[in-house]
Amino acid sequence: MTYDFDAIVIGSGISGGWAAKELTERGMRVLMIERGRMIEHQSGYENEMKAPWEMEFRGYGDAKLLAEEYPVQSKGTNFDEYTMDHFVNDADHPYQTSADKPFQWRRGYQVGGRSLIWGRQCYRWSDYDFGANARDGHGTDWPVRYADMKPWYDHVESFVGVNGSMEAMPQLPDGIFQPAMPLSAGESLLAGQIAAHYRDRRLIPGRSANLTEAKEGRSACQYRYLCARGCSFGAYFSTQSSTLPAANKTGRLTLLPDTIVAKIETDPRTGKAVAAQCIDANSKETSRHTARMFFLNASSFNSVGLLLRSASDAAPNGLANSSGTLGRYIMDHATAVAGVATIAGLDDHTYYGNRPSNFVIPRFRNLEEAHPDFVRGYSYQGVGIRANWPRGVHMPGVGADFRKTLSEAGEWRILMVAFAESLPRADNRVTLSDKLDKWGLPQLHITLHHGENERALLKDAAAEAKTMLGMLGGKMLISSDEPDLAGSAVHEMGGARMGRDPTTSVVNGNSQTHDVPNIFVTDGAAMASSACQNPSLTYMAFTARAAAFAVEQVKAGLL
Amino acid sequence: MPPVSTPASAPSVSGPGASDSAAFRRRDLLVGGSALAALIFATPYLSRPIMMHAEDFAPLLDSVSDILLPGSLSTQPGAFLASVMPREWRGLTLSHVKTVSHWLNRHAQGDFLSISFERRFAVLTALDTATFDRAAAETGESDAAVDAETVEAWTILKRALLTSFYTSQKGGSGDLAFNLVPGRWDADIPLAHAPHPLSNDWLAIWFS
Ligand SMILES: Cc1cc2nc3c(=O)[nH]c(=O)nc-3n(C[C@H](O)[C@H](O)[C@H](O)COP(=O)(O)OP(=O)(O)OC[C@H]3O[C@@H](n4cnc5c(N)ncnc54)[C@H](O)[C@@H]3O)c2cc1C
After folding, report:
1. What pTM did the predictor assign?
2. What is the ipTM of this complex?
3. CATH fold of A5-54+87-120+238-331+428-448+491-555, please?
4. Which of B72, B75, B167 to mutate to probe the A interface, most A CBs <10 Å?
5. How far is CA B25 from CA B9, B20, B22, B29, in A?
6. Fewer Cβ neighbours under 10 Å: the N or C end of chain B?
7. Quick check: A352 and B125 CB within 8 A?
8. Is A35 near ligand 1, meaning CB less than 6 Å away?
9. Phi–psi pair at A65, nearest 5 degrees
């Protein structure tokens, strides 16, 4: 049989960009299909260099429009008037969810996907994570361990450019880092207090995909923190700045934007996937593209939706779903603002510039000693800043003195957000709804509720945050242990989980579906547990690893 | 400060001719204050209900802004807020402005805009103080002198006025520093080296 391409990659975000890069660099002719529009690196970043006074709504957006058309996206991080075109219009892209605690599905449908708007925090997972399901019995055991993943973490970090510090903490393995972005004065003070009072925890600089040293045609970070607008300096990792140019350089990539993959077609004789059936996002014309293999990188729930939509007579409950687990065991970190406090006695210190990163206090629970109230763990990410002019809303004042006060630095504040691990549970799931979108495709129905374990973790996180922040001698402003609505962490994952057993999982240890060997799921859908670290670096590592495996299979004549 | 015993929605006395309580009631429903108020009294024709639009409050917004942040008038806060208020920018609606206007007129014992700058300053300060006193009262610390609706309205309007100024070129790159491309991250420096924070310290803006 002849194919239009060796491989079709569905989705051009963080994981799709990696699939395209790795497959083309290994000699494959690749078609990358993306449902959203093209955004060119540099020239496509329309609001990148605008000041607030150059924006119609001074950066805050048209509140009525946001309420009507962006009710989910507009409540999330990195969304504002400058960046809103990098997020989906909710009205155009509806989904169904539970009415009581609606899932917050934050998305970016464009070339680059959410690589344009992500927070860039990059953390390796350790064997505390890959071994977690086996250890406490929640979910199915991962078929991989850190040793399997380490070379691939090395591989992706070397290309991405991750800044960070070497810490020798087994729960957060060190990597191949560019120089770290230092802690602000307030953060250093807290780090010192924690080091002096605790042996089980440490506050360290965040690890982020922003260059602190120039690299392969990309400049070092300019400390603007305009990342989500797009960065002409190419200083943070995105499809546009990094993987797309690398894939294009091979001459073997074809990129097809504005095209929705509606269904993967299988050959009833062989059971193998043969074609992607597509709909033009603008004209709604249909097309079909064949390939030897398919990489699903449409983002966790969209990849699951695509497999569910690809049901056939041979696979009536969805493609690659002989286990019946497709769509189940979805997860998202449970987050809460564990603490915000002021710092006393540091008023003559400040900082300059915009560091596009944060600090992290890696997980310290359930490492060697089992906690009586919960399994797994949480970590904190936070920042120490000096309050700026909006503090004026919350303080009395009128007149010249008030204006003078607001022109000066406000008090130091430390914010700590807890990210708690989400347990894989069968009743948290994605299904197809009977409601259709405007392309006639079934909408997704997403049910994801945090459970008792997540609540117990956040309760502990809030209590611990209060104790740690209390050492700063300031005032506690906020502390919450109530989980934000699921989806708020934007670390949604699972639904096509990885496992050894084809009767209880969807993909094998090589990210290949058990049922259809020429389909690879290498985005977050394949996650069998959630850890409490940001997951995208792990998606990248799995993608690169799967691409290498797939090409070996092709060369061996097995695909 | 005049005693505040009437809820904001009740009729109130706000100028000469106060004996005509029916006229006050009508006016009260419609007008927060401004030169237009005088016209209504002068012209029987206009004393019938008329709709007030955001731009009708631009003079009031200009005045309040310039008292709150002296010098902000040159950034034309009234015109800007009137243009974005219909879109509920920063949560601000016409109703909030009317509520604040109502309070100011009542405590100006007339048209707020017609009294001297010193008295306007005193009345606005009284509103701001009463707002924060009320917040304190909720924690049991002092007596409230303003109703909850006005507290909410003033808090939202104050936020809109501050945002309007500090996102204008004058506020954002005059009072505060502005450098879209800092090019460096100095994690710990003496305050004297950067006495005015960056108005583009985006994280600090979000978390303040
Ligand atoms: C504000 C924000 C902050 C974040 N911060 C972090 C962080 O600090 N660290 C971290 O690890 N993660 C972070 N994330 C999450 C991160 O963005 C995602 O984990 C990551 O982008 C997932 O990569 P992906 O390739 O699976 O999906 P995406 O990057 O979402 O890309 C999927 C692409 O597939 C396309 N697509 C979907 N369906 C179809 C279809 N049927 N046909 C064709 N194309 C399709 C979409 O248009 C999209 O372009 C953040 C996300 C957001 C929004």
Report:
1. 0.93
2. 0.94
3. FAD/NAD(P)-binding domain (3.50.50)
4. B167
5. 10, 9, 5, 6
6. N
7. no
8. yes
9. -60, -45
